[in-house]
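Sequence in, structure out.
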Amino acid sequence: MAKIIDWGKYKYETEKRAKEARKKQHVVEVKEVKMRYKIDTHDYEVRMKAARKFLAQQNKVKLVVMLRGREIQHNKLAFDLANKFLEDIKDANPIVEKNPMLEGKNVVAILAPSAK
């Protein structure tokens, strides 16, 4: 036995359910925090505060320590800064998706918010 339905009504209801489902889900964005390895303490704290805010909003954080020109020779200092950042942000309980790595002239690390 087949059921005869109004196609327009059926399509409307399925679109409405899909729209309601989209409304309730959170799209995870990747927010970027950029700094140089010669960063001042106050600027570092501002970047730290921004990263904590992004993690609290359930967004991923991409930490980028930029190296310009001859600074690439001192990439150990950039890695030290990235590791210090990861250590200082431990209280926000991020999940480190990608440890600090050299990508071109940048040291990049990716943090994700912890699952609640």
